[in-house]
Amino acid sequence: SHYGSEDPEDVSAVKEMYKIIGLEKTWETFEMESINGIRKALIELRQMENMEPASIVLEEFLDQIAKRKK
Hints:
The chain has a domain at 23-70. Helices cover 74% and strands 0% of the residues. The protein has 3 helices and no strands. Helix 2 runs antiparallel to helix 3. The chain starts with 7 loop residues before the first helix and ends in a 5-residue tail after the last helix. InterPro entries: Isoprenoid_synthase_dom_sf (IPR008949).
């Protein structure tokens, strides 16, 4: 089995399988839908009394982690 191995050939085999099954596109779609949902929730939070500072901090944090590459 290639999965979980650090051997470069195994890593390449796993990445190739991910490409074949379209995992990257599936992940990108999931990530964008999740980010959009969180941003919508932050807009609603901002409209609550005394919650604007918290929503700003959370939005800045979201901007830092959204679409990051490991």
